[in-house]
Amino acid sequence: MKSFWGFGFLYLLLVGWALGLENLNLTETETIFDGEVTLGGSPLFVPLTLIPAAAASGALCLEWKLTGYHLHRGFGSGENSWLVQLGGGGWCNDIQSCLYRKKSRHGSSYHMEQQLQFTGILSDKPDENPDFYNWNRVKVCYCDGASFLGEGYDRAAGLFFRGQRIWLAAMEDLMLKGMRYANQALLTGCSAGGVAAIHHCDGFRALFPGSIRVKCVADAGMFLDAIDVAGRRTLRSFFRGVVKLQGVARNLPQTCTSRSNPTLCFFPQNVVSIIQTPLFLLNTAYDVWQLKESLATEAADPHGYWQDCKMDNAKCNTDQIQFLQDFRNQMLNVVERFSSSKENGIFINSCFAHCQSERQDTWFGSNSPTIRDKGIAKSVGDWYFDRSRVKETDCPYPCDKTCHHLVNRKKKPPPLVLSSISLQTSP
């Protein structure tokens, strides 16, 4: 009987995992990518460093555990250069979703990876990351649920919303580890980490003397306040829950909240133009996370009209492509004022993807995505080092043949699992 119940529990757990994949941040799932570029050298795995001093300031995860980061020291000419990446992984907008999150690596250091592979913009190899390979490279663990911006506590649920304190504690610890001696610095992040990189960009700049070069890169952080396929604003409703539950409003720019609703100020589109620090927006025009989780959710598309299109962009019909072209136009309109600043940079390609700086095949490889024959790593590097201005926007889909589209492929289910999905790239 005991074995029967154990078997049943495992079955339900795995089935729940399989059926719940759609609600996960796509870059945070374990995936298989067809055509990924593998360059020379052994992979770099970087250990987790916890921040004991964070306990004194209450800068702890949802589950009241110590937060931490993965740090790989710079060397040679990069010994005093620092690249800080803020982790991504979605958000939680109500008690139930935060309780679920706190039992994961995105809510507790107890579940975090003890070793994290550094690739893409975090790689230590010049043939994979030519401009930043020998810098001090850090990935700050994301274990709140509000892009490092929350400040609150729910006693009944035992949830601690301390994203802002986590940000401050991590920066303080890194300054003690040598970042205060930096001669140049870059803050970056992907997805929810991209949102955090935008909101914390000016705060990061303030850590350093005005004489040194400090800039920020937001990868896949331009989540738009867009109307979904049912005519509703799904993401605005979701973000409203995040902002209210986790006390985010107090940590948003007052130049925005003084004239607008805090929920709207959480959207990067409403704050990027007031960021004082040079900022680079790396984004796809057809972000697959936004397509699945804010534009064509199951609630907005109960009859599954968008299901095939969400699984594979090649299966989108004419009407769906037109809807997505309108979404692309909204993206371009949003960044128009932002891109007018000579110090800012943009790279918006017409790919169905999400996060392109963390993966080696999209960051820097022999067949990485390009706009006018210029890849992402080269574009970011040229902008950061002022080698050239970078204001790159792609022609509309399907003109770009260099994209690494993320395509959902249904695979034969493993034992006890009804269905599973893995993400693959389509060249």
From TrEMBL:
User: What are the UniProt keywords, alphabetically?
Assistant: Cell wall, Cell wall biogenesis/degradation, Hydrolase, Secreted, Signal
GO BP of this protein: cell wall organization
Purpose: Hydrolyzes acetyl esters in homogalacturonan regions of pectin. In type I primary cell wall, galacturonic acid residues of pectin can be acetylated at the O-2 and O-3 positions. Decreasing the degree of acetylation of pectin gels in vitro alters their physical properties.
Q: Name one GO cellular component term.
A: plant-type cell wall
Question: Per the UniProt entry, what species is this protein from, by scientific name?
Answer: Dendrobium catenatum
Name the chain's protein.
Answer: Pectin acetylesterase
E.C. code = 3.1.1.-
GO molecular function of the protein, one example? pectin acetylesterase activity
